[in-house]
Amino acid sequence: MQITLTVNGLARTLEIAPQAVLADVLRDGLGLTGCKIGCDQAVCGACTVLANGLPLTGCSTFAFAVNGATITTIEGLAEESLHPVQQAFATHGAVQCGYCSAGMILSTVALLARNPDPDEPTIRAWLGGNLCRCTGYARIIEAVQAAAAAMRVAA
After folding, report:
1. pTM
2. Is the alpha carbon torsion for 155, 132, 36, 41 positive or negative?
C-alpha cells in the first residue's frame, strides 16, 4: 500500500504494510526516532506527533489513516534555533530523562496554537494524555506558561 505524507516539510511517498502504525513508519521507515514507543496502547503520549497541527498518538494511528496529512515530529520543530517551547522546556528544567519530552513539547505546540494564554487547569487538561514519570509536572507547567508568554511577545 502506498501513502503520501508531508513530514517535517518534505513530501514523502511511502510503501507501507496495511497494518503499519504511524510511529513505526516514522521510526523505522524514516529514521525519526523522536517519536517514542512507550506503551503501544495510546496511554502514555510518548509517541505524540502533530498531524495537520493536531496531536495524535503514533502508536495507535494506522499510517493509512493519515494519508495526505502534514506530519510534524520533534525533529522538524526547530528551524535555525530551538522552538520557543523547546527552549522553555530546557530553561525551566522540564526535561529530565527526556523520554516523554518530544510528545509533551508537540502537544504544547498544538495547545499554544489554539490558546496563546492558557491557564494552569487548561494546560493540565491538554497535557493529560502525556505522562511523565520524572518531573512531577510543576516544571512542565512553568515551561508551558513561559513559552506562551514568549510566543505572545514575539507575535
Report:
1. 0.95
2. negative
Instruction: Report the residue count for the chain.
Output: 155
How far apart are alpha carbons 139 and 60 in whole angstroms? Answer: 28
The count of structural domains within the chain is 2
DSSP code per residue over 77-144: T-SSS--HHHHHHHHTT--SS-TTHHHHHHHHHHHHHH-SS--HHHHHHHGGG---SSS-SHHHHHHH
Which residue(s) pair with 134 in the sheet?
A: none
What pLDDT does residue 41 have? 87
Measured over the CA atoms of residue 126, residue 130, residue 136 and residue 140, the dihedral's sign is negative
Task: Find out whether 94 and 142 touch, Cβ atoms under 8 Å.
Answer: yes
Write the pLDDT tens digit of every residue in 19-52.
999 999 999 999 999 999 988 788 999 999 999 9
Same domain membership, residue 96 and residue 58: no
Strand order in the sheet with 54-57: 10-15, 2-7, 70-72, 48-51, 54-57
DSSP letter (8 states) at residue 60: S
Residue range(s) defining the domain that contains residue 70: 2-76
